[in-house]
Amino acid sequence: MTKPENPRGVELSSKQMKEGDVIVNKWDPRVKYAWATGEAISRFLEEMKNGKLIARKCDSCDRILFPPRMFCEECFKPTTEWVYIKDTGKIETYSISYLDKDARRITDPIFVGVVSIDGASEKMGIMHYFDETTKEDIHIGMPVKAVWKPPEEREGAITDIKYFRPLKEGEE
Ligand SMILES: [Zn+2]
Question: In angstroms, rounded to a whole number, what is the distance separating the alpha carbons of residues 131 and 57?
Fold first, then answer.
């Protein structure tokens, strides 16, 4: 038996594809996905629609988990109770980004980062946008509050909160 010259085969160039050197078959797939978000995140997203943030309590280690989950990752016990928490929090970490969400360059930066929510246990952060602030003012530990979309525009998504803005003096 003779050994093939290149056992791994030959790469095809896009030129060969375009010019019909090889058989090409084109079609537009109709791709649709659906998946279950699970018990904890389903309720979390339902409550987002109502403009509320909900967490789960773990009785075993006495922590409030947010985003909610049915099992505690710390002590591996099932969580026990639903708890509403506030829509205020503190900036845990942030980035000043000169790229928008589609990675296009922008002149006015956007602020993205992690916010830990008041009422949840420490370091229970979610990623979100920060706005109504400047790159000079934004800082770690800055108290912030959620800015919600109007109720009729909410769809049960994390983007039902448009962004977090600085908490005003005397505001809760
Ligand atoms: Zn626990």
Answer: 30
Per-residue model confidence as pLDDT tens digits over 52-86: 999 999 999 999 999 999 999 999 999 999 999 99
75 backbone dihedrals φ, ψ, rounded to 5°: -115, 0
Number of independent structural domains in the chain: 1
**CA of 124 relative to ligand 1 center, distance in Å:** 13
Cα gap 3→105, rounded to integer Å: 52
The residue behind tokens 């790159």 is 135
C-alpha 82 – ligand 1 centre gap (Å): 14
Does residue 172 form part of some domain?
no
Q: In whole angstroms, what is the distance from residue 73 CA to residue 153 CA?
A: 34
Q: Which domain holds residue 47?
A: 38-166
Single pTM value for the model: 0.79
94 Cα–ligand 1 center, Å: 28
Does 8 fall in a domain? Answer: no
Instruction: Give me ligand 1 centre to Cα 9, in Å.
Output: 54
Q: How far is the CA of 71 from the centre of ligand 1 (A)?
A: 8
Tell me, what CATH number does 105's domain have? Answer: 2.40.50.140
